[in-house]
Design goal:
Number of domains: 1
CATH class: Alpha Beta
Number of strands: 7
Strand content: 25-35%
Distance between the termini: 25 Å
Shape: globular
Low-confidence stretches: none
Largest sheet: 5 strands, antiparallel
CATH architecture: Alpha-Beta Complex
Number of helices: 4
Helix content: 25-40%
Bound molecules: zinc ion
Mean pLDDT: 94
Strand order of the largest sheet: 1-2-3-6-7
Order of helices and strands: HEEEEEEEHHH
Oligomer: single chain
CATH superfamily: Peptide deformylase
Amino acid sequence: MRSLVREMLQTMYSADGIGLAAPQVAVNKQVIVVDVEPDQTATPPLVLINPKIIRTSKELCTGEEGCLSIPGVYLDVIRPAAIEVSFKDENGRPQKRQVSDLLARCILHEMDHLTGVMFVDRATNKIAMNQALQKEGFSVKDVQAVAR
Ligand SMILES: [Zn+2]
């Protein structure tokens, strides 16, 4: 687990990402890493093993998302503004966190990867989605969820 987490963090930082899920590096495990402030060494990355959403806020917000698995494509996605999530940390200790804004969005985006859902599946504007995908040389078929 430790070497998987180290490898995932390396991959995420070297690609200038703020989150990565194990399935993105072809590992079928319920593990995500998140660091929405990669330049701030004082705030370490979050490692979430077996993350579960306990609660989501009624308030929703729209934000632009991208994904290391679909480079160059950025689309608006509506998600809950805040969540409560439980998980095990890299030391196997159970944790619970209430997070909001970008951190909540990032965790939800990465957790979607664990069930094969891509952010394009949640894109609010399908016309903009098709245009953005085509511009980067992808077809909708390429990025559709393989499993739900
Ligand atoms: Zn992604």
